[in-house]
Antibiotic ABC transporter ATP-binding protein
Amino acid sequence: MNQFINILKYAKPYKRFALGHIISNILYALFGALSFMALIPMLDVLFKENTQKAIKEPVYQGIGHLNAYYKDFMAYQINLYAQQDKAKALIFIIAFIIIIFLLKNLFSYLAYYFMVFLRNGVVRDLRNAVYKKTVELPLSFFSEQKKGDIMARVTNDVTTLQYSMLPVLELIFREPLSIIFTVIIMLIISVKLTIFVFIFIPLSGVVISRIGKSLKRKSDRVQKEQGVILSTIEETLTGLRIIKGFNAEGIFNQKFNESTSRFYHFSNKLLNRQNLASPTSEILGVIVISILLWYGGQLVLVDKSLDGSSFIAYIGLAYNILVPAKAISRGLYNIKQGNAAAERIQEIIDTPNPLKDKENALIKTGFDSQIVFDNISFKYQDEYVLNDFSLTIPKGKTVALVGQSGSGKSTIANLITRFYDVNKGSISIDGIDIRDLSTPSLRQQLGIVTQDAILFNDSIKNNLKLGKFDATDEEVIEALKIANAWEFVKDLPDGIDTNIGDSGNKLSGGQKQRLSIARAVLKSPPIMVLDEATSALDTESERLVQVALENMMKNRTSIVIAHRLSTIKNADEIVVLNKGKIVEQGKHNELIAKNGVYKKLVDMQSFE
């Protein structure tokens, strides 16, 4: 139930719709109960010989005589209209019943009308909140999560809430009010009979509640397995080339079939338990009505304390209680099922973000002097990948970081961009710790080109404009020229408006990389971070990309993480890393002359 209350918080922006829904439901419940009271005078007209016993206007004698007052009042009104004509009296009653039912259904529609905006608004805001938090969370969160499971939470779990927990919003006022108004009228007709009824209703409620106890656990298993299915699909589509190349289709088919089989069994158990709810409550309802018929018949035939028309209306009212009671019990089942989905969604929303900006974080609008790494240490899990690393990069200089895999080169890129925070020490730009800066303003100073050219299923122009949303077509083309990419873009069918497919798969590796460089150029940041931007390319593509990189780095401060050492010979300073520490530092020729680690790395690549 706590999760349900958390979900209700998202209804706050839709208060006016909630108010309209509540008012409409109050009136719906009132007219729904009155619709059965309207049957009493009709039955009197049809089956009693003397319908005009209350010729004089009746006098109200207190709540204990409310049923008698109502019957006498209706008889008086009928007499005024019909003048002892039963046919006219019947028309009067039918018109009265039609008006009551018309009002009941009008307010029913209005209640649903307001609920549409409330319910769909909550779903939209909840989905937006989950997606926003997903984007905000640090990369470290996703290294421990399956993508498919995250996707399942944003899509399937929110959909589960939409069709299980959120419909309960419709029941919060409608069904309880229907029961309350119905019970009031039942008490007006017969206090004895109502007390008798309420001895049995709690007993049936106990039986129904026992059926739903295991629904949350069963629903949780179903939702987790949905995440496994989505993860398998995502992994399959991402690695399809490898799966086919290694003839691993059978392994992945088996893995997927095992997951869908588990989903099949879990879903069967969950749905069969849900399906048991309706017939169980129906049977219990019939039993209650049957006992009611026996006891009420005694009051009519033996005690003579209740007349037949009131008893028939009372039976209708008693059955009318069963409809909202069933809806409430079904709603409780749905809350139990939706609770598991809500927990999974709330888990993402409540996940703390260790990289959240400080209050009153500084906004940096430019880069003036230097970047300083001051005795920083960092670990992803248990072992430090950087130890007491210190480096100063003056404005306008190009610094290259080299070393074997695992030496900590790419970690530097992750830290300067604040994808992760340092465990010890500090990184500062112009003397300001980057943790004191707002993350957007920090990243506005940085241009990033990674080894994997990450592009989106959109046009070339829109991919480049990620760095500068208001860029003109002329600016886009100029960035493409600097990145040595215009030569192939201009020959594409739609030029810069050409869609490049999923992850840019319509282009070659070199073309994709040049587009990612053009994206960084268009952003025009003062600091460039190049994380092995040419290591995945063939020699010809590397040469084209290298020219593009040199064009881009002119008059900019650059941090170049290099695997191929031939690309960083002209760097102002080369820093050689080994196991997270600086072992050598200097220009290319100086390091060659030292005949140390750097010379060995160069010789190894030359031999290759």
